[in-house]
Amino acid sequence: AQSVTQLDSQVPVFEEAPVELRCNYSSSVSVYLFWYVQYPNQGLQLLLKYLSGSTLVKGINGFEAEFNKSQTSFHLRKPSVHISDTAEYFCAVSLMFSGGYNKLIFGAGTRLAVHP
Amino acid sequence: DTAVSQTPKYLVTQMGNDKSIKCEQNLGHDTMYWYKQDSKKFLKIMFSYNNKELIINETVPNRFSPKSPDKAHLNLHINSLELGDSAVYFCASSQKQKDPYEQYFGPGTRLTVT
User: Fold this and answer.
1) Cα gap A78→A61, rounded to integer Å
2) Which string of DSSP letters, residue by residue, matches A57-114?
3) Nearest C-alpha of chain B: how many angstroms from A100?
4) Distance (Å, rounded) from C-alpha B42 to C-alpha B57?
5) Which of these, A105, A101, A85, A97, lies nearest to A24 by C-alpha position?
6) Which pLDDT value is given to residue B52?
7) Which of A94, B22, B58, B66 gives B47 a disulfide partner, CB atoms 3.0 to 4.6 angstroms apart?
8) Residue A96, Cα to own-chain centre: how many angstroms?
């Protein structure tokens, strides 16, 4: 069964510092991986996705993630964070089933708190 | 030019009542979803419809009944509301043939049952 583990529930960081949000997955088949961001009182917005190809994926707002098959990880990074990056970040894996449909399995989320 | 919209944004009601949440998308997508986010922010899929046909039905109490009048709308009706139903409910949509993996989310409906 596919599952997603986000290793940190909260990550405090100072503005302009680098950050890494960790995500590990378990899957017995090919995976499609996503990072979504949820700003306070808002819906989820896609940051980036890995479907195939280059293992380094660049997303919006300066974020990037690296797919590591041997370590079953998909960690999210940003070299310099801003106050406006304060939000909840969700890692997700796509579970495919017959008919070409999919559903997203989410991790528990990581709260990124950027301090001045 | 809202892509996925939900109404209402907030819903406060008492135990035992019946309520509905509506979702509409103007992206031309053919697949829609309902997710529940609990108080610990954990997100879990509840239902999915493709072209008005139910394709995902997770282990959700049968007090929850989704309805899709057309492929642009997916509503969620909840009977006999319980305290544990308090959560944020998100609607999402995707296009199966074009990009089945990317889902677009609505702003959420915060349901509070007292």
Assistant:
1) 9
2) EE-GGG-EEEEETTTTEEEEEESS--GGG-EEEEEEEEEEETTTEEEEEE---EEEEE
3) 7
4) 18
5) A105
6) 83
7) B66
8) 19
Interface of A with B in 35-94 (CB under 8 A): 36, 38, 42-46, 49, 51, 88, 90, 94
State the smallest CA–CA distance between residue A15 and chain B in angstroms. 24
Q: How far is A107 from chain B (nearest CA, A)?
A: 7
* Tokens 């890494």, located at residue: A20
The verdict on a CB contact (< 8 Å) between A101 and B55 is yes
Amino acid at B4: V
Reading the block at residue B67, the tokens are 């309805």
Residue pLDDT tens, chain A, 116 long = 778 999 999 999 999 999 999 999 987 677 889 999 999 888 899 999 998 888 999 999 999 999 999 999 999 999 999 999 999 999 999 887 777 778 899 999 999 999 99
How many other CB atoms are found less than 10 A from the CB of residue A96? 16
Cβ–Cβ below 8 Å for A43 and B102 = no
**A36 with B50: Cβ contact below 8 A:** no
Nearest CA in chain A to B43: A106
In this structure, what token pair is assigned to residue A48? 């980036």
